[in-house]
Amino acid sequence: MSIYDRAGNRFEFQHGPIFAQLVLADEVNRATPKAQSALLEAMEEHQVTVDGRSHALPEPFFVLATQNPTEQVGTFPLPESQLDRFLMRIQIGYPDAEHERQLLLGQDRRLLLATLAAVLDARELEQLQSAVPQVHAAPPLLDYVQALVAYTRTSGRFLTGLSPRAAIGLLRASQCWALLDGRDSVLPEDVQSVLPAVVAHRLRVTQDGMGTASVGRQVIEAVAIP
Asked: Which residues of 119-143 are buried (b: 16+ CB within 10 A; e: fewer)?
């Protein structure tokens, strides 16, 4: 926001917490719709516009968010336009008995943050990000991605189909999966590996009783590999 500086007789822009390379929006669906909408420009354009001036965010920039179950009191539903800007949704769930015992016997997890060491710096991460689009996706692979997306739009099993942004996200996530596996080309299995997490928060089924994991499996099983 801009704060008035009485000594200088002018407004000065003050950077908020969004000006970071990694932003964690904890319990994002407890924020009001107005606060949620403030993330849209940042996540898509990597900038913040205040009083008619745009301020670039640092690079690399990405957002992680957690959300509470929608049936809990004090939550607001996330609009589709905001959900579509998240590449993936991953459900963590409860820890198993062994790991929960480690939590009970170990140090406070927050205290351990001070002992974490970086595994790569910002420049190395940017190099990896720039390498992802270079991973080869053959025309039949693109046909497969388009067929998966088209199924969500035409099958009648979903309230709304996947958007073009979701299709790009599915391809990029598949390229990233292949790159992490040490390959320079994408396989259909890469697409299938990332699809459940890419579509889990984007697709709503027309019938009740189907979980987000089942949605991804349904799409994969319905579309044949070319």
From this structure: eeeeeeeeeeeeebeebebeeebee
**Residue 32: what pLDDT?**
82
pTM tops 0.90, yes or no = no
Tokens of 97: 């008995």
Could you tell me the two tokens for 119? Answer: 């595994």
| Predicted local distance difference test score (pLDDT) of residue 34 | 78
> What CATH number should be reported for the domain whose range is 1-86?
3.40.50.300
Q: Which residues pair with 48 in a beta bridge?
A: 55
Closest residue by Cα to residue 160 from 218, 198, 202: 202
pLDDT value, residue 76: 84
Q: Where are the domains of the chain?
A: 1-86, 124-226
Please count the CA atoms within 13 angstroms of the CA of 21 that sit on its side-chain side.
Answer: 7
Q: If one looks up domain 124-226 in CATH, what number appears?
A: 1.10.8.80
Neighbour count for residue 204 (Cβ, 10 Å):
12
Residues in a beta bridge with 54: 49
Residue by residue, what is the 3-state secondary structure of 194-205? HHHHHHCCCCCE
Residues of the chain scoring pLDDT < 50: 209
